[in-house]
UniProtKB/TrEMBL annotation:
GO terms for biological process: DNA replication initiation. Belongs to the initiator RepB protein family. GO terms for molecular function: DNA-directed DNA polymerase activity. This is Replication initiator protein. Residues 17-158 form the Initiator Rep protein WH1 domain. It comes from Yoonia maritima.
Length: 389
């Protein structure tokens, strides 16, 4: 039995964590890829989780996000089958203080058709997964760094308690279920469990993620009976938590945006979407215009329409490129956060030249060096995307 509890963007109030001692446990041994797959599917569906009966994601995008070969549909099928065959169980107090126990398949169904993965959750499970007091989402940027299923499982189960600083005491039997080793007699011996599961998982969490975990044990006589994990933020890797925005806030252009009157949230969004260099170019463009009454609105338009100083004889070329770039932005904005991340990774995988890769890393989809390759990529991903321009 393993837990699929993961951390939601934003803070969980300490009182709510104490009040809602809710646990969703997922039975069966989820592989590392299945665990990652489960998290990506949930993130993709989260915004419409309780409003839509089914959800969809491009199958190639999904494979890229999880780390599959994008053409390896058989592995994807096998993993989806495993999620449908896996049960999620919860035991908690409801809003009225009554005990509630429930069980559901982790996925109600999944199907692949026309290059699209369609899937659904049961209504009861969807309600639990959407409640931040019960369940939480983890940051995919951190998830990708894990190479061990035990380490990712430990991270998921610890991160939700980061505000309280401790998981609380878990009976050793429960911990073995959370790690998916409860059916092995070998791991009933604490010495084996500690050497093969606890120590390696703790080492990877502390090296890979934005938290530091420290195990503590309780004994009855000579036998270890309970375990808990003290939790602290990892200051060296907190930049990995994109919700904190620290990495983006360290960009020089971030301060320039604030000086223009752009909000913190919008500034971080623009930097991630357009890249620091492209935004600096537009700030300079707006700053050169006299009599601008609302710099934020002007800058928004400059980014959206790709305003630029035109050189003689290049007006038509610039206009055509601007229209295509504007269409690229429209296509990007129509994608979910999960799909946007996968699109970037898929495009990067096609760049062989180190200079081209560096330019894309710096400028994103507005990379001038990769403009033609970017247009070709989106035409291939969405045929006819530029036909009406």
């Amino acid at each position: 039995m393993a837990s699929d509890q993961v951390s939601l963007s934003g803070a969980l109030r300490r009182g709510e964590v104490k009040k809602n001692v809710a646990a969703i446990h997922v039975s069966g041994k989820l592989t590392l890829l299945q665990r990652k797959l489960s998290n990506v599917l949930l993130l993709n569906a989260y915004d419409t989780l309780i409003h839509k009966q089914s959800h969809a994601i491009d199958a190639r995008t999904l494979c890229t996000m999880i780390g599959y070969n994008s053409n390896d549909m058989e592995t994807l099928k096998q993993s989806l089958r495993g999620l449908v065959e896996t049960s999620a169980e919860w035991d908690m107090l409801d809003e009225n203080g009554q005990q509630e126990w429930g069980v559901s398949s982790l996925l109600a169904y999944a199907k692949l058709k026309g290059g699209v993965c369609e899937y659904a959750y049961s209504a009861a499970l969807a309600e639990k997964l959407h409640d931040p007091k019960v369940f939480a989402l983890i940051n995919l940027n951190i998830q990708r760094r894990f190479t061990s299923g035990h380490a990712l499982a430990l991270y998921e189960n610890c991160y939700r308690f980061v505000r309280t600083g401790s998981t609380g005491w878990w009976p050793l039997e429960l911990f073995r279920r959370l790690m998916g080793v409860n059916d092995s007699a070998y791991y009933e011996v604490f010495k084996h469990l500690n050497a093969k599961v606890i120590k390696p998982a703790v080492a990877e969490v502390n090296k890979t993620s934005n938290i530091i975990v420290t195990p503590e044990t309780r004994k009855m006589g000579r036998a270890v009976t309970e375990i808990r994990f003290k939790i602290a933020k990892n200051p060296q890797l907190s930049i990995l938590d994109l919700d904190d925005g620290e990495g983006v806030r360290n960009e020089p252009v971030y301060e320039k945006l604030l000086d223009q009157g752009v909000s913190d949230r919008l500034a971080r969004q623009w930097i991630k979407e357009h890249g620091p260099a492209h935004i600096s170019e537009k700030i300079n463009y707006v700053s050169a215009r006299k009599g601008v009454q609302n710099p934020v609105s002007y800058l928004t338009a400059a980014l959206r329409e790709d305003y630029a100083e035109e050189k003689a004889g290049q007006g038509a070329l610039t206009s055509d490129r601007a229209k295509r770039l504007a269409r690229v932005r429209e296509l990007i904005n129509a994608r979910s956060p999960t799909q946007r991340d996968a699109d970037k990774r898929l495009f990067m995988s096609r760049l062989d030249d180190s200079g081209a890769r560096l330019d894309f890393e710096n400028h994103g989809w507005m990379s001038a060096l990769n403009a033609e390759a970017i247009f070709a990529f989106w035409e291939d991903l969405m045929p006819g995307a530029f036909d009406d321009l």
